[in-house]
Amino acid sequence: MTxxxxxxxxxxxxxxxxxxxxxxxxxxxxxxxxxKDDLLDVMYRAVGGGPDDPALSLxxxxxxxxxxxxxxxxxxxxVLDSNIKPAGDFERVRIAEIDGLIVEVHCRCPLEIAxxxxxxxxxxxxxxxxxxxxxxxxxxxxxxxxxxxxLVVIDTSGPVDVGAVARQVAEEFDRAxxxx
Length: 180
Known about the structure:
alpha/beta, Rossmann fold
């Protein structure tokens, strides 16, 4: 295992609060934030993508995933923010390739709250976002933790105490270090 490598992997429904909490945790710990959605937005805009271009969104999405996984293996300390399917074989292989101590922070909220947040988020100008609603079949891929490291489950249906979450994450890193 790479000495000192620590990663926080976010999981949960789309619009469950992962990105908001990921940014706060990255700031708290001084970790890099690797956000697939941020990578996608930059790439999509860089190639001149506009609204309603699903083919370009799909191609830049594939490039954003490649960059996400590359950076995930390269950064010594990072928060990984994306929708990783717990049952996805491809995603599980990519996670397994990451060397280091991992704490998964699973953002749990009722699907109805995530769906309402998703609709509100879709109103913002994010031209690369193909779906405007979070349908139940898609959401079902993300409701469970990934199972990729020590687990911290957070209720994100309302305000979150970032300091308390950070303490839980730090405790899990300490526990993982003792086992390793």
